[in-house]
Amino acid sequence: MEINLSVLRSLLIxxxxxxxxxSSFVEEIVFTDKVPTAGITKDGQLNINKNFVDKYVDSExxxxxxxxxxxxxxxxNHFIYDCTDKINHIACDAVINSTICALFGEASGYGSLFxxxxxxxxxxxxxxxxxxxxxxxxxxxLFNIYFSLYVNKDITTVEVIEALKNxxxxxxxxxxxxxxxxxxxxxxxxxxxxxxxxxxxxxDEENKEEKYKNSPGESDDSKLTKEEIEKIAESLEEYMKNxxxxxxxxxxxxxxxxxxxxxxxxxxxxxxxMLTNKKIDNFKDEQQRERYLTLPFPINPGKRDIVxxxxxxxxxxxxxxxxxxxxxxxxxxxxxxxxGSVMTYLPKIIGFLVKNxxxxxxxxxxxxxxxSEISLQNLIKGEIHTTxxxxxxxxxxxxxxxxxxxxxxxxxxxxxxxxxxxxxDMKKLKLKTLNILFDGVCCPSFxxxxxxxFLEDLK
Length: 459
Fold this sequence. Notes:
Blueprint: H1 5-16, H2 21-25, E1 28-31, E2 38-40, E3 45-48, H3 50-56, H4 60-72, H5 86-103, H6 112-117, H7 134-137, H8 143-150, H9 157-167, H10 170-173, H11 209-212, H12 226-241, H13 250-262, H14 266-274, E4 283-295, H15 303-310, E5 318-330, E6 334-337, H16 342-357, E7 363-367, E8 371-375, H17 376-380, H18 392-402, E9 406-411, H19 420-428, E10 432-437, H20 444-447, E11 452-454
Parallel strand pairs: 1-3, 6-7, 6-9, 9-10, 10-11
Antiparallel strand pairs: 2-3, 4-5, 7-8
């Protein structure tokens, strides 16, 4: 099939939407023999081996498998402690491929590329990298791992790594070819002088290690930045919120969701989830808007123009949808428990607030048995106003009176529950909270409104 930027972007937009970072990440496609399969650089350059494409990629589902496999790779980098240990790479690819089959079943043709690229002619470790190997692995020591990956979907990356290390010596894994970039090493082209490759399609070309070493899309210089990985994680997270397949993926998908969240920085998560327009600080929330531009040619036409073109009606002018970003100022509502026990934890709490909110959070609320507002700057200077007792009723009253829909509550948790009338009023606001504990247990009333995490777990 013909692969160009227009074809690729159209494919990604159909699956992820116009506003997804993934849809616009690839800026250029380069055909080169310097990579064995494919690789994406941090500048958005997709490098593809033309011989590989001609042999294996002949449909949109194949192309989708390839690009999503490469996009998901950086999410698993922290599992690769040793780039020379190919078991780690195989395990990660097995989880990536099975996740793609589970999460993007229809778009990926349920792993159409993996079925072509990896052989199922005999029971081998290569079968873990593709669906459709139930029968060939029946009775084999790999069957349980395969079944957990593609049928039950109840296994994690770490479990696959440990299982494979127990089952296979390192030299066995060196025979397996892999898709895409793997930490600057050739993708499955390691030369095994003592044995022939097991897979169909093994050629002398694939064994030229020097040719592919440090090639575009595979060198350390091409690794995606943390910010880019975060944006990819955000796009995948957004996709999964609206995906029916995500709800049917079992523990495999649940562990992938956790993996996505681990690739989002705490600050990103807090800002993304806890911003409110009920309190204005210096947080900038970027929102996408759409407008129509009238042009004499269709670039991204609206529905009416698409219908007209479909029935053969040619317009002299087309209303093209154009997306643009605007920034809105928003804020974060923080309630800090300043009862007696806070003094022990105050340096760490201030460190957390400064690291994540300095220059953006103008003020926050202190509370003990009453609530008072204080600037972050004055809190850093050590200004504390406390009555030493603790009452969550005053927090609830402040939330209700101000109409807040989101709030971060930092507390030791030692207090009675919130009054029923205040609890009911907070429910009406559809309140969402993030409860951060520096000691004790969370107030049950607030626990119903959001997640609870411990201060010691914050990084």
